Amino acid sequence: MSTYESTFEKASIWAILWRTLLISIGVVILGVVLIFAFMGEHSTLIGLVTDGLVYFTMYKLTLRQMKKHSLSVRALSRPLSQSNRSFLPVLGLTILTAVVAYSFIYFFMTLLTFIPALFDLIMPYLINISFVEDLPFIYLFVVAVIFAPIVEEIVFRGYILNKWVDKYGVKKGIIFSSLVFMIIHLQSLFIPQLIVGILCGLLYVKFNNLVYPILFHAVYNFIVLIPTFFINYGAPEEAQEALLSIQESLPMEFILVSLLFLVSLPLLVYVSKRFFHTLRETGSPYAQNIELVE
User: Cα–Cα–Cα angle for 229, 271, 157, nearest 5°?
Assistant: First the structure.
């Protein structure tokens, strides 16, 4: 008789979410104390420490909940096949998704220039989250390309998706877990995060292995970060002034990148349909993998 549960049906999602929220609040307080203690210096190191603590906490809480509900950690992923030819199309899908996500920001800003009331209301928020965050590239790289892909995929796909696929079915499980993934990323435009969540979920269900969504997530974040390394938007005040002025004179850059979005989005939909045209309708990746563990 197996010592592990065969599905995630009895697993608790809220136990992870509310504990993570409480610990995140504590870590924020710790970060503020450290900033005052170091008189505003070493902010990058402090940020890495506090973000690392949050992600480590999410990781440990997830594994603890799995142990509490007699769930096998090994069954989150099945062994990779000797032939890894699948990684190449996944890489192509990732690059295309990153192009769509990055160009969406320009498209959305361009669209706002035709609606003055919404432009004045939304544009300051878009500037703050997209262009003027004064964060070192090394900090962004470690958090976005290393910490986030590994831990978030374990939590959102490995735990939450498995839970909701076992409870509601594959389609609803992918959609519901992707919506939570989107909502958690408050400092984003939501739509790109929703697309990433759905594609990571589809990859996990297709391959039954967390390596694929982790790879997708990490490469996607890296590609989106590249412009922050090469493009200098100047001081926050200068960037804000330049971006607010696009309502009077729309730069050619915005028009071209917006056109790129209108081309790349249908292409992403087409490629995704081709890539995921065969996808099972029942059974979570965990349920498929537990038989191999046993």
Answer: 70
